[in-house]
Amino acid sequence: MEARNTIEKKMDSRSIKEEIIKAGRIAVNQLVKVAKEEIIKPDPEDELAADRLKNAAATKKLAIFDAFEIMKRIEEEEEKLNAPEEKEEKKSSGGFAERRSRK
């Protein structure tokens, strides 16, 4: 029964991670849209034009960097999900000396 609960938890955890990855891809697509938007053209009569340009450029930079960061993490998590599962080592109740003496 305990093994079944462990398997169910792993499956549930995997499906949650897959959903997070999907959501991350959606977020990246939205950030790409922000990065593609044109920067506001300066109006010579607008006193705040320089500030607006600066803010628009900073927003684009942040969107681009965030998109790359999210994509990197998505790739790392996909590698973990697709990696073959490692078998758990047998746990011994003995101490260091006992474990070493068996080898």
Top keywords for this entry?
mainly alpha, 3 helices, 103 residues
Question: Care to describe what's here?
Answer:
The chain has 103 residues and is an all-alpha fold. The chain has one domain. It is 73% helix and 0% strand. The protein has three helices and no strands. The protein has helices spanning 2-36, 49-82, 96-101. It starts with a helix and ends with a helix. The model has no long low-confidence stretch (mean pLDDT 82).
What is the strand and helix layout of this fold?
Blueprint: H1 2-36, H2 49-82, H3 96-101
Helix content: over 70%
* Distance separating the two termini: 33 Å
Point out poorly predicted stretches. none
Mean pLDDT: 82
Helix tally? 3
Give the beta-strand count: 0
Strand/helix succession: HHH
Question: How many discrete structural domains?
Answer: 1
Rg value: 25 Å
- Classification by helices and strands: mainly alpha
Largest sheet features: none
What overall form do the CA principal axes indicate?
elongated
Strand content: under 5%
Sum this structure up briefly.
The protein has 103 residues and is mainly α. 73% of the residues lie in helices and 0% in strands.
